[in-house]
Design goal:
The protein has about 200 residues and is mainly alpha-helical. The chain contains ten helices and no strands. Helix 5 packs antiparallel against helix 8 and helix 9 packs antiparallel against helix 10. The protein is elongated and about 60 Å long.
């Protein structure tokens, strides 16, 4: 009887496989609930062997969070050769598409990991900084001068866009296009406010 030969994975391939299983499991649970025992069981190895590829549970969590954040930043990076308006629309479309397609994982990691796991706040923070830089880059591409409130406004808009994308009724027809238009409109209004003097109206 001839047996089927099992392909032996390299250490990098095994790490990638384990991280991939971790990401799949986050589709229906939080990072707190991610069990390394179950990850190892799904792959068919012992928990002890899992820690041959990762120094600790913390190291495994960081690898999972970093993989997801890398995927998120890649999805929201527009083609640099696009015209300014098209560039901003591509950025928004990439953000919306990613969140709608990976909503639960996004909520578990990009949005929830910072508060739940201080060990990964640097990774999540760096991801948010990358997105913020793209908003600043968009302003620059549109030829808009810098403003004192630009950084604060950028973070406020990011929170708004994130809340809209994670709560939008995605199952409705045309939801993605409507959401993109909604988020784009909010950014246009915000940029317009930054581009005019802020004057308090007397009561």
């Amino acid at each position: 009887m001839s047996g089927r030969r099992t392909t032996r994975l390299t250490p990098d391939q095994r790490r990638e496989q384990l991280v991939g299983i971790g990401l799949e499991m986050l589709a229906d649970r939080s990072l707190d609930e991610l069990s390394t025992d179950e990850v190892a069981r799904r792959v068919g190895i012992s928990r002890g062997l899992l820690f041959h590829y990762f120094d600790s549970k913390r190291d495994f969590y960081r690898a999972v969070v970093r993989a997801e954040c890398d995927r998120f930043t890649a999805a929201t990076e527009p083609d640099g050769s696009l015209e300014p308006v098209a560039w901003m629309r591509a950025f928004i479309a990439g953000f919306v598409a990613y969140v709608l397609e990976h909503r639960q994982v996004y909520l578990a990691l990009v949005r929830g990991a910072a508060g739940s796991h201080p060990a990964v706040t640097d990774i999540v923070g760096a991801t948010r900084e990358t997105v913020a830089r793209r908003v600043h880059d968009g302003r620059r591409r549109l030829g808009m001068p810098d403003a004192p409130q630009a950084e604060l406004a950028t973070r406020a808009w990011m929170a708004f866009a994130e809340e809209a994308a994670t709560t939008w009724p995605a199952e409705q027809p045309g939801a993605r296009d409507e959401l993109c238009a909604f988020i784009e409109s909010s950014l246009v209004h915000l940029l317009g406010l930054l581009d005019r003097p802020q004057v308090l109206t007397p009561r």
